[in-house]
Amino acid sequence: MMKKLAMKTNVHWKKLLLLFSLMTGMVILTPVFSENGETSSGSVEPDSIEKQGQTGFRVNEVATQLDEDVYRLDALLEYHLSDAAVEALVSGVPITFELQMKVVSPREWIWDKTIAELSQRYRIEYYALTRQYLVTNLNSQSQDIYSSQQGAMEALGVVTELPLIDKHLLKEGELYEGRLRTRLMIEELPTPLRVLAYLSSEWRLSSEWTVWRLQ
């Protein structure tokens, strides 16, 4: 029964992807695979297919340093997209990621106090004509182009010297924690795909919160 349900969900996904193409005038090129797993369509680059079992986001390392009275964040993250997300991306659907950051004052008996809350957003797009990936920092509007999906995802996973909080907003002698996670923003997907994405585990991609001592 679960197998039939998965097949039915996949059919609904492809129908919605086709509906999106009709509504936007975009040509959707769905990769076709032979029995040995090789791509028989020229629409998808070999490295654009994520390995099975590798789906998910993870924060591998995180650190902060004080520079001119500002705490700056360095982090290494891993992004492994699901098959549904990869298919949408190489078909021309932009995907947005959000890096969520918090500075909190932990309390033993009551709710932790949030001192600061920040968000950094990135959008990745694939252009079939040039076979390139465009990554846009939606906070600064800076853009970078990559020749492969792997290169784009690896670049997204490196965060350096991101301003987190001014030292003067923290009381000397008190304990503060930094918290970080990253997620795929389902709410930024095109409308025809959004409803199905909310119902599918393939689109609920998020890392756990990583916590470290700030001061």
Polypeptide structure, described:
The strands form 2 sheets. The protein has a 6-stranded antiparallel β-sheet with strand order 6-5-4-3-8-9. It has a 3-stranded antiparallel β-sheet with strand order 1-2-7. The protein contains 4 helices and 9 strands. It is of the alpha+beta class. A hairpin with a 4-residue loop joins strand 4 (113-127) and strand 5. Helix 1 packs antiparallel against helix 4 (191-199). It starts with a helix and ends with a strand. It has one domain. The model is unreliable at 1-12 and 18-52 (pLDDT under 50). The radius of gyration is 20 Å and the shape is globular.
Q: Which structural class is indicated by helix and strand composition?
A: alpha+beta
* Total of DSSP H or I helical runs spanning 4+ residues: 4
The sequence of SSEs as H and E is HEEHEEEEHEEHE
Helix content: 10-25%
Number of strands: 9
Strand content: 35-45%
Q: Can you tell me the number of structural domains?
A: 1
Question: How far is it from the N-terminal to the C-terminal residue, by CA?
Answer: 52 Å
Q: In this structure, how is the largest beta sheet organized?
A: 6 strands, antiparallel
Unreliable stretches: 1-12, 18-52
Radius of gyration over C-alpha positions, nearest whole angstrom: 20 Å
pLDDT averaged over residues: 81
Order of strands side by side in the largest beta sheet? 6-5-4-3-8-9
Q: What is the overall silhouette?
A: globular
